[in-house]
Amino acid sequence: MFHKEGHRIIGIAIFIVVIINMLSFYIIPEGWGQNLILIGSLIFLGLILQFFRNPKRLFQNDDSHILAPVDGKIVVIEEVYEKEYFKENRLQVSVFMSPVNVHVTRYPVGGEVKYSKYHPGKFLVAWHPKSSELNERTTVVVENSVFGEILFRQVAGALAKRIVNYAEVGQNVIQASDSGFIKFGSRVDMFLPVDTKLKIELNQKVRGGETIIAKEN
Fold this sequence. Notes:
There is one protein chain. By secondary structure, this protein is α+β, with helices and mostly antiparallel strands. The protein has two domains: 4-51; 65-215, Glucose Permease (Domain IIA) (Distorted Sandwich). Helix content is 21%, strand content 36%. The chain is built from three helices and 14 strands. It has helices spanning 7-27, 32-51, 131-134, and strands spanning 65-67, 72-82, 88-97, 104-106, 111-119, 137-144, 148-155, 162-165, 172-173, 178-183, 186-192, 197-198, 205-206, 212-215. The strands form three sheets. The chain has an eight-stranded antiparallel β-sheet with strand order 9-5-6-7-11-3-2-13. Strands 1-14-12 form a three-stranded antiparallel β-sheet, with no helix packed on it. Strands 4-10-8 form a three-stranded antiparallel β-sheet, with no helix packed on it. Helix 1 runs antiparallel to helix 2. The two termini are 37 Å apart. The model has no long low-confidence stretch (mean pLDDT 85).
C-alpha cells in the first residue's frame, strides 16, 4: 500500500523506467549494458516505492497515551523554551527519519486542532540544532482531553523539499490518523508538558502510531 502523496511520483518513475529500458533495447547492443540499465532502473524504482509505502498499523487509540508521530529514532529529549506558540518551557522529543523510514506523519494524540501554520525556511541537515527554528516546517497544536495542548512540528531537512500538512484549525482529529507527509526526509519535534512521564529513551527506534512516547501521570 502506498501513500497518496506518492501516487504521482510513482507513476512518473514507472514511466521513466519503461522509457529508459525501451531506448536501451533499441540503442544498446544486447548484453551486459542492457542488463546493467535494467538492474539500475529497477533499483531506482524500488527506492521510490519503499519511500512512499504506507503499511497498515495496529493503532491503539487511547487518550492516556502519546504515540510516536513518525517512524525513526529519538534524537532529542530535553527541556527547552518553545517560543512560537506556548512561549514557555516544554519537554522536546524529536524523532529523526532516515530515507528508508516510513514518512507518513500521524497525530500523536486525538482532539481538536487549535493551531496549524506553515513556515518557509532553510534546508539545514535535520540533526542541526537550529533546524527546528530555521528550516522549512509546519507547526500543529492538538488539544487533548488528558494532556492538554500538544505541539508537533514537521521539519524539512537537506533532502526534503516539500512538507504536506493536512491539519486545519477546528478539526477534530483521531489519534494515529494521517496528519501529513514529509517528502524525502527529515524529523518531527514534539513539545510536551515538562512533567510528562516519558516511556522512551534517547536513540530508541520508534514506529509511528504504535510506539508509546508517554502515558498519563
